[in-house]
Every structure is written in C-alpha cells, then in structure tokens.
Specification:
mainly alpha; 5 helices; 0% strand
C-alpha cells in the first residue's frame, strides 16, 4: 500500500478536496506562510513542516471533525515515516 507524504496530502487536498482547486498561493495566504514554503513541502517527500502547521492545515481545510482528524492522523504518520527513515 502506497503511503502519502505530507506534501502529497497538501496537494491532494488543495487540488481535489476543496470546493474548487486552490493554488499554492491561496493555500499559503490562508495558512500565513509563503508560497515557496508550500512548494517546498509539496516538492519533497522529506520536508517536515512544524506540527503547528499540520494542526492549522487540518483545522483550516477539514470540513468537519472526521476530515480534520483524518488529515492530522495521515500527516503525522507521514512525518513519522520520514523521521524513521532518517533514524530520528
């Protein structure tokens, strides 16, 4: 079974889950970060955003509690896989 990276989850949510596809810039503005920060996360399976970003992303883009819990769980699992691969 293929495991999504944090960047892949963000890209999937912004391009397929939202009412209309969002650009990296729109997500960045909503999250209070730069577009290059979003691009860096989406472009690297090894990039780990701060936990505060993951929590805010889930709260901002989850339509309901189930979605928010799913986003949090999957993003934290993705971070855990990266840390395990690094030996952290």
């Amino acid at each position: 079974m293929y495991k999504l990276s944090v960047g892949e989850i963000i890209k999937m949510v912004r391009s397929q889950y939202c009412a209309r596809p969002l650009t990296q810039e729109e997500v960045a503005v909503e999250m209070g970060v730069s577009r290059s920060f979003i691009a860096a996360i989406e472009g690297s399976e090894q990039k780990i955003p701060p936990d505060s970003f993951i929590e805010k992303f889930a709260l901002t883009f989850g339509r309901n509690e189930t979605d928010r819990s799913y986003f949090l769980r999957e993003m934290r699992l993705a971070v855990g896989r990266v840390k395990s691969a690094r030996g952290a």
